[in-house]
Amino acid sequence: MARQLFTVGPVYVEDETLQAQTKPMITHRCKEYKALHGAIVEKIRKCLGTDDDVFLVGGSATVLIEGAVRNAVNSKSLGISNGSFGKRLIECGTANGKDVEQIHVPWGTAMKPEHIEGKVAKDIEAVHWVSNESSTGVLSDSVALAEEVRRQNPDALIIVDAVTSAMAADLRVPELRPDALVFGTQKALALPPGLAIAVVSDRIIEKSKSMSNKGFYTDFVKLKKNADDNYALTTPPVSLMYALDWQLDRILAEGMQTRYRRHDEMAKLVQDWAEKNFNGLFPEEGYRSKTIGVVNRGDLDFDAFHNALKAKGYEISNGYGDVKSSTFRIGHMGDTTPDMIKKLLSAMDEVLEEMQ
């Protein structure tokens, strides 16, 4: 049976959004495509409050996360991690032969300026982290981290994985001033997977000009040359871009501050439910995700609970990484509404009662 997704991603996609993909196919070198590409870029800039370049590349966000590292780091970077996806970002560096200094913050704890105090030496070319760690449900203050990086080493580039935060939590991009802010379509944009998006600075483009071994697909100089003409370097997922263009119109019509408040409300509903039924949420107070509730599950038989919930037409996510066996996760992002969350939580209450 079909189930409504309250997962960490891919997430629930509305029928209207899926239908927006069904426009007639066009080639990616025609004037119609150029207009589509340009419109998407301008709408993303407006949503995030930036004038920086925007790259659109077919693939998951990881392709541009890896690309950012390859274009920004010749030798040495600093990676901050507080969960599985922070570790993955570090691996994107080490797998490409970079020397990555590593700072591992305890899971469930936000990354804070004091964690990197005295660590951003002059030979650190870039510092990278995950803004919203989806394995733990921690939303760190990326602006505070970026300011500390700049205080210690103004030349260090800043790479931020915003996969589960962009378009749902206010990242204060004008203050953050990232050199690469990367996300994808299948999270808070509430679209099918398949398109990676990066907001990139002039600084990282300039660094890329002197870099070797950037690959072809992730060469930021090549990507910018095409993006300047509102074209893609290689064949993009055109149908998905139709849906992205349509979805960005809806996001702008809702208004970014209204959208952020809606995500705040959904996060509060899940937090209150977790405190009532379990031992609350896993992450520390004050740094809890706006898009993912990571619940301390105690002795709950999650498989039995989840199977019963799926039978009622709902799907959530198991725990992940080091806390897989002690937590489960509820996704509340994109086009999900507080009323939808209330119905989910009611169904979960019914399952808990049935399991007693």
What does this structure look like?
The protein has a seven-stranded mixed β-sheet, with helices on both faces. A three-stranded antiparallel β-sheet has the order 11-14-13, with helices on one face. Strands 1-12 form a two-stranded parallel sheet. Strand 3 (76-81), helix 4 and strand 4 (99-104) form a beta-alpha-beta unit. The radius of gyration is 20 Å and the shape is globular. The chain has 356 residues and is an alpha/beta fold. The relative contact order is 0.18. The chain contains twelve helices and 14 strands. Helix 2 packs parallel to helix 9, helix 3 crosses helix 7 (202-209) and helix 10 runs parallel beside helix 12 (338-355). It is 40% helix and 17% strand. The model has no long low-confidence stretch (mean pLDDT 97).
For this entry, give a set of tags.
356 residues; alpha/beta; seven-stranded mixed beta sheet; three-stranded antiparallel beta sheet; 40% helix
